[in-house]
Amino acid sequence: MPGAGTDSTRPWPEGGPVVILVEPQLGENIGSAVRAMGNFGLSRLRIVNPREGWPNPKAVTFASGADRILDEAEIFPDLRSAVADLNFLAAATARERGMQKSVIGADTMAVETASRIAAGDTVGILFGRERTGLYTEEVSLADVILTLPVNPAFASLNLGMAVAVVSYEWFKLASEGTLPFQQPDRYALADKGDLYAFFDHVERELDAAMFFRSKEKQPVTTRNIRNIFHRLGLTRQDLATLHGMVAALVEGRETRAARTAARLGGRRGPAGSDPEAPDVEAEGEAGTER
């Protein structure tokens, strides 16, 4: 079942390196690797002597809809036959092998792959077994060693994760880092007239609320407030919302003031008495009840 963000109507990217899984042990890991390939635009998969045979139902489940890669996967009995037609081969490993081979990262491998494919070469990347990785003899068949800047105290990656990182670097280069979507500009930026009208509104109400405690500092404070809003790149919709917020605050303040005035005006007591003083008569009645 395709996940969120999947658009099956879009064309599938072509090209890229061949991914070669050497004696993978679990169908779940094959499926996870295939899902990563599909995420990042790789489609050519070769599997060397899978332990649980082929096809593998668990691989289908974990591929999460990248069925076309599984359907077109090629199965080989040994590594040499799987790479015989390739022109350039990288071996992914987390261990130093004592070989005189160039050691490159996934980003450099992406650049090397793009260059060689442009020249007409076929490029492959070897990934080893989940438990032991690639054997030294298998690494010796490759042109370069591919590794990742992982924590040396815990360098072992899950097969699917390793394929995902390498595939990501390839697709980032191939797609020029283009993101699948951008936030649309739904509202036009406010023009200066709209912005200045908002300044007038908010400054008028701040003055009425006695926000400006010092007349000498008011011009500087006003400039600082204006600069805050200038930096935001406000849209007309933003300004409409801000106008509404200020109006609601003013209305709330006025409503509270009216309620307070009404409450104070309704207090009983002799003329000139403190309207906030307690109601003595009521307290006396309460005392009688005790």
Structure explained in plain terms:
It is a single chain. The protein has 290 residues and is α/β, with parallel strands linked by helices. It folds into two domains: 18-174, Alpha/beta knot (3-Layer(aba) Sandwich); 186-263, Helicase, Ruva Protein, domain 3 (Orthogonal Bundle). It contains eleven helices and seven strands. The chain has helices spanning 27-39, 57-63, 67-71, 79-83, 106-118, 136-139, 159-174, 192-208, 218-230, 236-265, 280-289; strands at 18-22, 45-48, 74-76, 88-92, 102-104, 123-127, 144-146. Helix 8 packs parallel to helix 10 (236-265). Residues 271-290 have low confidence and may be disordered.
What is this entry, summarized?
The model is unreliable at 271-290 (pLDDT under 50). The chain has 290 residues and is of the alpha/beta class. The chain contains eleven helices and seven strands.
Please give the structural blueprint.
Elements: E1 18-22, H1 27-39, E2 45-48, H2 57-63, H3 67-71, E3 74-76, H4 79-83, E4 88-92, E5 102-104, H5 106-118, E6 123-127, H6 136-139, E7 144-146, H7 159-174, H8 192-208, H9 218-230, H10 236-265, H11 280-289
Parallel strand pairs: 1-2, 1-6, 2-3, 4-6, 4-7, 5-7
Function: Catalyzes the formation of 2'O-methylated cytidine (Cm32) or 2'O-methylated uridine (Um32) at position 32 in tRNA.
Protein name: tRNA (cytidine/uridine-2'-O-)-methyltransferase TrmJ
EC number: 2.1.1.200
